[in-house]
Design goal:
By secondary structure, the chain is α/β, with parallel strands linked by helices. The chain is built from 13 helices and twelve strands. The protein starts with a helix and ends with a helix.
């Protein structure tokens, strides 16, 4: 499949690229790596992302190519559209309108919950990150992977593996990262940009968020809640809270961390993180979401108290299934 997709991309002249809402490092890194590579091969590329690029990823090469408005693209025709790191069109914010000819849709992802919505689908749940798949595709196309492209790919892998600490970290992630470092990537610079360049608003938001921490009686479940009022109070947005869900997960005994983020239009985005083999993608799937074994998410439309009660019930069931009722109630 990788060879087939490489061939289709190589023959394309006009290419549309996009990724998911609330983009993370893997989404941004994969998107920019592809875009830079194709631009260097003189393809005409349109790089679209509905939401803003998070501030801590704006150092990445090629970020200036990203557009956030589809209106000027009305009437455009593309040979190929690449949809990266996204389980379905809803995750992207909806399929672009019928007034844009997207050509052949190529869906590239590593989420097990991917719905195979493309004309060509390359979904590898065993990959540490979509950026890992992108590296293999670009390498297979034979052109040089420049330092700028390498930096984007490395940032994607580093981000999605939690700095090489999550369970999806595999030998391929280290092998590719070694190659990328040999091509000029500076891990210290990337880490500083992503994790040590936060605005003061992030600390102000973190203070607010930590005040909402809740834990189940057995400490197996940790919950954090972020409201729209907090965003308004700290003059910030969703891009500033990346990684917040790890705070309850860091607490000893916590098996599943849950973050409720109130949406401007109502309802809550719910994110899950787990340890070891506790599969939170199944938890998210019960609410129409998806993701990985240890990282998943969904959206719920109900009052917060009701949402917490329902989510808690499902998470507790997952904890009990995974580690046994005795541990869950300890």
């Amino acid at each position: 499949m990788r060879a087939d997709i490489s061939g289709v991309i190589e023959r394309a002249q006009r290419i549309f690229l996009t990724t998911h809402l609330n983009p993370d490092g893997d989404a941004v890194g994969s998107l920019l790596a592809c875009s830079l590579y194709l631009r260097e091969r003189n393809s005409s590329v349109t790089v679209y992302m509905q939401d803003p690029v998070p501030k801590n990823f704006r150092f990445l090469p090629g970020v200036d190519m990203v557009v956030h408005d589809l209106a000027p693209l009305k009437g455009s025709r593309y040979d190929v559209s690449l949809v990266l790191d996204s389980t379905d069109w809803e995750r992207v914010g909806g399929r672009p309108g019928s007034d844009i000819d997207l050509g052949t849709i190529i869906n590239i992802d590593h989420h097990v919950s991917n719905r195979g919505f493309g004309d060509l689908n390359l979904v590898d749940p065993g990959a540490s990150a979509t950026a890992e798949i992108i590296f293999d595709i670009l390498s297979g196309m034979g052109g040089p992977v420049s330092k700028d492209i390498a930096t984007c790919i490395y940032s994607g892998i580093m981000s999605d593996t939690g700095c090489f600490t999550y369970s999806n970290t595999n030998t391929r992630a280290f092998e590719i990262s070694r190659i990328l470092v040999e091509r000029g990537v500076r891990p210290d610079m990337v880490a500083e940009q992503i994790h040590e360049s936060y605005p003061i608003a992030r600390l102000e938001m973190l203070r607010e968020a930590l005040s909402t921490l809740e834990f189940s009686n057995d400490m197996a479940i940790g919950v954090m809640t972020i409201s729209q009022e907090m965003f308004q109070k700290t003059h910030s947005g969703p891009d500033i809270i990346e990684g917040f869900i790890d705070y309850p997960r860091f607490v000893a005994g916590v098996k599943v961390a849950v973050l409720f983020r109130e949406l401007p239009e109502g309802g809550y985005k719910v994110s899950f993180r787990s340890r070891s083999n506790l599969d939170v993608s199944r938890v998210a799937a019960q609410f129409g979401g998806g993701g990985h074994t240890n990282a998943s998410g969904c959206t719920v439309h109900m009052p917060l108290d009701q949402a917490k009660e329902r989510v808690f019930d499902v998470v507790r069931g997952a904890v009990m299934d995974s580690i046994g009722e005795g541990v869950a109630n300890a």
